[in-house]
Structure of Mechanosensitive ion channel family protein:
Amino acid sequence: MQPGRVLLLQPSPTVTPAGAGQPSDLSQTVVSWLPISVEPWVGDVFSTIVIIVLAWAVSRLVVQLFGRRIAQFFRRPSLTRTALRGIRVTIYLFAILSIMGVWGLKVGDIGLSVAVFSAVVGVVVAPIVGSFISGIFLLADQPYEIGDMIELADRDQRGFVEDITLRHTKIFTLDNSFLVIPNGTMRDRDVVNYSAEDPRMRLSLDVLVTYESDIGEARTLVERAARQVDNVIGGGPDIRVGAARYPAAPTCYINEYGDHGVLLTLRYWVTEPYKLLAARSKVQTNLADLVEDADVEFAYPHSHLHFDETSGAMELSMAEQRGREMEFPTDGGEPGPSAPQSSDADGE
C-alpha cells in the first residue's frame, strides 16, 4: 500500500455580522444591573424604553432652560415655537439613532430601503413638502403673527391666529371653531390682517337726512352717537396710517347732495377689531334715540307725481261713453235698447 495524503475537511467558520444577534453594550449593561437573568432581547426592549423616556425628559428640560432666551432672541411667537420644535425634533432624532444602535441597525442598512420608499411615495408627500416650503416663506414674510386677527376674504371668516407651523396655520374663528389650513393654500389666499401693527380700526357709517333737516345739528348728533359707545375712540391725537393722519375723534362729513336727501358719512375709530358689528349697531341705536326730539329726519326714497297743463291729456273713447249712457241713463228715463226687459217681477 503506497502512502498518500489525507485531506481533512473542516467546516469553515461562519462570519456573523457585527451587531446581528448580539446584544449591544447598553443592553448588556442594563441586563447586568438586573437582579435576575433575562433574555438579551428583553434588555434591548428595556433600553429602548429608557432612551425614549430620557429623550422626552431632556427635551422638556431644554425647553424650560432656553425657551425664554429663544423668545427674547426671535421676538416673534411663531419663530420661537418653530425653533423649540426644531430642538425637540433634534433630540428625538438622536434618540432614534440610539435605538437603532441598540437593535444593531445602521444608517447604511436602511439607506437603500429609504431611497426606494421615497421614490414610491414621492408623489404622495409632494404636497406635504410644498406646505413645509410655504411655511418657511410665511415665517419669513410675516403676513400675520400668532394672536393677530385676520379675515379670509374668500370665506368671509374672521378669527385669531392660534398657531403657525411649517405645515399648516391654525385659526380660532369668532364662531368658536378651529380652521386648520395648509400653508400651501394659505399663501394663495387673500388675507386681511386687522391687528398687524395697530389694533385700532376705522369704520364708516352713511346717514341720509332730508333737505328740510338741520344739517349742522344732524352732523353733531351723528358724532355724539359715536362718542357714547365704549370701544369708540372719543378723541386724542391724530392717528397715523402710513403717510396720512386722520382725526381720532368721530367726524361727520357731508358726502353728497343726493336725489332724496343729504348723504352724511361718519368716520370713527374702534379699539377692538373683533367687535366691529357690535360697535356699528350701538352707534346706530344711539343715533335713532338722539334724533327723536331734534329737527332731523331720515330720508328715504320716495316720489311725488305732479300733473299740469304740460303733462298731456288722457284719451277717452266716445263710443264706449255712449254705450254707458244708454245702459244707465242719467235723466231718469227708460233704459235704452241695450237694457234687457223683464216679463215679470222675477225677471223671467
Observations:
- Residues 6-21, 338-348 have pLDDT under 50 and may be disordered.
- The chain is about 40% helix and 15% strand.
- The beta strands are 149-152, 157-164, 168-173, 178-182, 191-193, 201-209, 239-241, 244-246, 251-257, 262-270.
- The first helix runs from residue 25 to 33.
